[in-house]
Amino acid sequence: MVRNLPLGRAAVGLLLAAVPAAVACGDATGPAGGGLNDGVEFPPLAQDIVLDACIRGSVVPDASPSGSIEREDCNANGLFFETYRVRVNRRTDVDFEVESGFDSVLELVAIDNFGSAVPSLRPIRADDNSAGDLNALIRSILEPDTEYWIAVGGRNPLQLGSYTLRIEEN
Predict the structure, then answer these.
(1) Cα(125)–Cα(139) distance, rounded to whole angstroms?
(2) Which of 26, 35, 70, 143 is most buried, most CB within 10 Å of its CB?
(3) pLDDT digits over 16-34, tens only?
(4) Do the Cβ atoms of 150 and 123 come closer than 8 Å?
(5) Residue of 94, 96, 88, 85 whose CA lies nearest to 144
(6) 63 forms bridges with which residues in the sheet?
(7) Contact of 97 with 168, CB cutoff 8 Å
(8) What single-letter DSSP state applies at residue 10?
C-alpha cells in the first residue's frame, strides 16, 4: 500500500518553500524541454524559474533520470533538492520512485494557469519512506495538458548523495 504524507510534514514542501507562489512561465524566454515521447511537448520556462526550482530536465513516464543532491542545489529551509518537469499526453497512472543511499523525500506539484501571467503551484502529494529502505514513492494519476514538477530531496540537511528517480506508467 502506498502511503503519501500530507505536504508540510516530514521535511516536504520543498518546492512550495523555494519557488514563489506566483511564477512567470509560458511565453517567457528560456530553455524549453523537448517533445520526448508520443508528442509530449514542454513549453518554455523563464530562466529564473529554472534556477529557482532547480529544474534538471523534462521527462515523461518510463524515464529514469539520475542525479545527486548536493549542498550546491536548491535550498528550501535547509533541505536540498532537484526538480524534473513531467507531462503526459493522456490520463496516466504514474509511479514516482526514488532509489538512493540517503533518506529521500519526493514532492509532486501541478502548475496551474501555466500559460498565464500568474500561474501557481498546487500540491498533489509528498512522501518520505513508502518505497522502503528510506526511499520515497508517490503514485498519482496525471492529466494531459498539465505541467507537473517532481522534486527529489533529502529528509534533512545531512541527507545528500546520488539518486535515481524512476517514473513508470502503471
Answers:
(1) 8
(2) 26
(3) 555 543 333 332 222 333 3
(4) no
(5) 88
(6) 167
(7) yes
(8) T
